[in-house]
Amino acid sequence: MRTDIQTLRALAVVAVLLFHLWPKRLPGGYIGVDIFFVISGYLITSHLLGELVATGGIRVGQFWAKRAKRLLPASLLVLLATAVATIVWVPRTLWDQFLGEVLTSTLYVENWRLASDSVDYLAGGNEASPVQHFWTLSVEEQFYIALPLILLLSVFALRRIPLQRAALAVVIVCTAASLVYGLWLTAWAPSASYFSTLTRAWEFGIGALVAYLPVAPRRSRVPLTVVGLAGVGIALLWYSSSTPFPGAAALLPVLCTAAMIYAGARTFLAVIGRFPPVAFLGRVSYSAYLIHWPLIVLIPFVSGHELRALEKVAILAATLIAAWLCTTCVEDPVRFSPRLLGKRRPRTVAAWSAAGMAVVVAVAAGALAVSSLDNQAAARHATALADDLPSCFGAASMDPELAPCSNADLDGVVVPAPADAKNDDDNRSECWSGSGKAELRMCALGPEEGYSRHILAIGDSHNNTLIGAYEKVADAYGWRIDVAGHAGCYWTDLELIFHDKEQQEACAKWQESAREHILHSDDLDAIVVTKTSGGRNASQEIVDGLVEAWKDRPDGTRLIALLDNPRLSDDVAVCVERDDTKTGEGCGLPRSKAIYDDGQARAAGQVEGAEVIDLTDSYCTKTECPAVIGGVLVYRDGNHLTATYAATITPYLAEQLKALIEEEE
Question: What is the pTM of this model?
Answer without folding.
Answer: 0.89
